[in-house]
User: What shape does this take?
Amino acid sequence: SYVLTQPPSVSVAPGKTARITCGGNNMGTKSVHWYQQKPGQAPVLLIYYDSDRPSGIPERFSGSNSGNTATLTISRVEAGDEADYYCQVWDSSSAHQVFGGGTKLTVL
Amino acid sequence: EVQLVDSGGGQVKPGGSLRLSCAASGFTLSSYSLNWVRQAPGKGLEWVACISSRSSYIYYAESVKGRFTISRDNAKKSLFLQMSSLRAEDTAVYYCARDPAPTGRGAFDIWGQGTMVTVS
Assistant: This one.
């Protein structure tokens, strides 16, 4: 089955840029979606189809996907961005949705 | 307001059964695929099952295939997950989630609040 690999944790100072990666075989050929989940809350869609943002999501959140890695970039990080972040793809080979293991973003 | 409300969770003994429901409001349910996603305590998200807008396509994670059944009633604006032969490792918060792709291969743009299932 298809595996998505995320770093367990990323730390960043306020105002700086955070980059969270999501690795998978031939990732660039798939559409990647990103979610933010804060403690005790349901996930929220941040980025869909690699780089599109739903209405209401700040422009500070952006996505890219190429080769074997997709990247979620958070610019001008704020304390309120501290959360778990998950990537997700549809794996057509197995007909499964697949989530990455999640990355905990800590704002220093 | 566009909303999904999960219900039906609870505590059940190993080998038992439980039926989860998800009520939709604020949008036309029949235009969307629907999913169940679960999250074990302290763990990440795990996709469980998907049903396309007209129930033409149904997919299951290997971990639940043969034990769980996803279904929907568009007229009643509801999604269901019938869970049987439950195991301790099925303990999790279960979320329903909406996917605008009619065949169920897209992103999950709306999520329910989750309902807790404890198998013990």
